[in-house]
Specification:
The chain is built from 14 helices and ten strands. By secondary structure, the protein is of the alpha/beta class. It has two domains: 2-25 and 91-325, no CATH class; 28-80, no CATH class. It has an eight-stranded mixed beta sheet, with helices on both faces. A two-stranded antiparallel sheet has the order 1-2. Strand 8, helix 11 (240-254) and strand 9 form a beta-alpha-beta unit. The protein starts with a strand and ends with a helix.
């Protein structure tokens, strides 16, 4: 839509595991989900390598290779706390997410989460399930669910797979690299599916941007065609698919492609400890741990700024969704 000579873009949310940690008591962090072995968690600071190390440890233990079995173990650690009995008291409920989404012109939600927390919330809040695309077995270029409520259309993209389709869960370098190849093909206008000719893409993203004409087959386009707000998402360096897209977008801008959307990375007081919190820490190890965590985030923010991503600190306390949506115009 053009208003006053300026294009008005729709908004997209990119949500990670921080959503579950904000809503549920006992929700696990990713290193805890990926590995039950504390020794590996302490020495491997990369989720993808942590997955590979645990998988190979299982192979040695059981004398057999079963990727799906390990993925099922991960889901078994993920799901138990994600139910109504563990919802935190005194925090904003998930229905606030959808109320704000309608008000703030959000029509797409991307999530790296495998669970059904968002789908369940949409159903409880009165959204009707219109359509589903689970036609992919392994990758999730097109994995989406479409919903509507009154005059609000909302599309949920499970960009790293779905626990209901165990092979689709994106874990390990094998799957990430295969997925990245699909993403590269899509961006370069060389993407197709043997299951449906309608999924063929032969137009480069540069042409789509120039003509403001998109095929809406994959979530990948949204990082170029809509304003994207990341929250509850650490953007770990193991997320090579998303880091590749961010650097590709930055290179295109450097080459003169007129990209009008913005990408915003939101972090909060739990991601970055204030000087006051650090100074008040009674335990030296805890203090040093917070300082290392702050330095790691500071370095990531510098890199994101170089890639043309805005980084903003928000205070969430018990009002995650109000704080996030206050950043969306």
């Amino acid at each position: 839509m053009i208003l006053g000579g300026e294009k008005i873009m729709n908004n997209t949310l990119l949500i990670g595991n921080g959503l579950n940690q904000a809503l549920y008591t006992g929700a696990k962090k990713w290193d805890e989900i990926l590995s039950a072995d504390n020794d590996l968690r302490q020495c491997i600071d990369n989720y993808t390598f942590l997955y590979e190390a645990n998988l190979l440890r299982m192979v040695k233990r059981d004398n057999s290779y079963d990727d799906d079995r390990y993925k099922n173990e991960i889901i078994s650690r993920l799901k138990p706390c994600l139910n109504d009995t563990n919802i935190k008291t005194g925090v904003e409920s998930i229905d606030k997410l959808f109320q704000f989404a309608k008000k703030k012109n959000v029509d797409n939600i991307l999530t790296t989460n495998y669970d059904q927390v968002i789908e369940t919330g949409l159903s409880k809040f009165g959204y009707n399930h219109k359509n589903i695309d689970d036609s992919e077995t392994i990758y999730s270029m097109r994995r989406k669910r479409e919903y509507s409520k009154n005059d609000h259309e909302l599309c949920l993209w499970k960009i790293h797979g779905d626990s209901e389709h165990i092979k689709s869960i994106c874990l390990g370098y094998d799957q990430y690299c295969g997925y990245l190849s699909k993403i590269q093909g899509y961006i370069k206008g060389n993407y197709s599916s043997s299951k449906n000719e309608a999924y063929k893409v032969d137009v480069k993203i540069e042409e789509k941007i120039k003509n403001d004409k998109y095929d809406h087959i994959s979530w990948v386009e949204l990082l170029f065609s809509s304003n994207v707000y990341m929250f509850g998402f650490s953007l770990d360096y193991s997320e090579i698919d998303l880091w590749w897209l961010l650097q590709r977008r930055a290179r295109m801008m450097g080459q003169g492609v007129k990209i009008l959307n913005k990408i915003v990375f939101l972090y909060n007081e739990y991601d970055y400890a204030s000087d006051e919190v650090i100074n008040n820490a009674s335990d030296l190890n805890e203090k040093n741990s917070m300082m290392r965590k702050n330095k790691k985030l500071e370095d990531k923010i510098k890199l994101l700024n170089e890639l043309g991503v805005e980084c903003r600190r928000i205070e969430i306390k018990n009002a995650l969704f109000s704080s996030v949506f206050s950043q969306i115009k």
